[in-house]
Amino acid sequence: MRYVDVITQLTSNAIDVGLNPTKRRYWPRFAFHFTDILNAVSILNSGFLVSRDYASSHHIMINDNASGSVISGTKDVVEQMVRFYFRPRTPTQFYNEGFQTSYSRAQRKLVANCPVPVFFLFSLPELLSLPNARFSDRTLARSEDVKLMSSPEAFSELPFQYIYHDTSMRGLSPEQKRDVTGHKHAEIVVPEKVDLSLLRQILVRSVAEKTTLLELLHESGNYRFDDFIQLGDESTFYMDRNFVRNVSMSPTGFSIQNRVKNPYPSDWGATNATEPKYAVNSDVSDRYLNVTIKSVTPDGRVVNWPGAEHKALFKEQMSFRLRRPEPAYTLEVMVDDHVAYKGQCNSVEDELPF
């Protein structure tokens, strides 16, 4: 028996796990690693995925998207491993995907934050076949002892109907919900570091976030992964929080389209209305997402918005006219001091006839 044989049974529905056809043909083929865009850039520039301990000791974890309560319950040996899931759309991802106000995060079961999520998809059969790879049938982020396995036979006996569970848990007892949630977080682990030779796809939520990831990589001279970066959808992401969908830029101005969900108190006004542009009460900073925008021309001229006297809000549509036409400029959108978009307008190149 080979790992690929079991995976073929999963994707062909010979082993029925209740997934819809799209997810059934997709999820079982890959091992999934989920991280914030800033960590993703670091990973792609270094050429390795590394364990939490390694990242911490080498000071290369830029955004910590894990929940402190989960990490505190995770055994030290697990933090020495590179960790993958068998699936996307885990409960953990539900809690930490996308920009949220500090207040909203504090109300959730897991206080975790992954503002701009990026998925790395690795070939599952090849990853499982690595000599030092192991896998579990449930989460390793609990204090209980969990068996680690390493054979195709053990893999074939995993509770896939729970690992790939993708329907409501309404009607289940609290104990049953806890068990299913644990199985959804079943893991593949490899000691310390994994190179990117088995990386097959990199998924992001929107055109704007794809542009941002490419821009950040290109700033480092890294063009190696351009063809890997693709748009994901609801089969990978929840896509129900705040993020930048698309940015249109021209020499005279730019327009930003956002996906919004409770970016500020509802009694301040509608998110699809022009007003309010700014925080009604800037002192309650945990209740709203604070937006700053910066444009930079090739000769170094910088324009920042808003001015120091205002705190701008995250709206569904944000349009701006430049003070004077600029054939080329870089635009950066920050939300709560984290990059939400970065891209370039270069109308000179666009007009070249070749």
Structure in words:
This protein has 354 residues and is of the alpha+beta class. It has two domains: 3-204, no CATH class; 242-350, Immunoglobulin-like. The protein has helices spanning 3-11, 21-26, 37-46, 52-57, 68-72, 91-96, 102-107, 124-128, 152-156, 160-163, 174-184, 207-219, 347-350, and strands at 30-36, 48-50, 81-85, 117-123, 134-135, 187-191, 193-195, 199-204, 229-231, 243-250, 253-259, 290-296, 302-305, 312-313, 317-321, 328-335, 338-346. The strands form five sheets. Strands 12, 13, 14, 16 and 17 form a five-stranded antiparallel β-sheet that branches. The protein starts with a helix and ends with a helix. Residues 69-73 have low confidence and may be disordered.
Counting structural domains, the number is 2
As a percent range, the share of strand residues is: 25-35%
Low-confidence stretches: 69-73
**How many H/I helical runs?**
13
Task: Tell how many strands the DSSP assignment holds.
Answer: 17
What is the chain-wise order of helices and strands? HHEHEHHEHHEHEHHHEEEHEEEEEEEEEH
Nearest-integer average pLDDT? 93
- Main sheet: strands, sense, barrel: 5 strands, antiparallel
| Global shape | globular
Distance between the termini: 54 Å
Report the C-alpha radius of gyration, rounded.
22 Å
| Proportion of helical residues | 25-40%
Structural class: alpha+beta
Regarding quaternary structure, what we see is: single chain
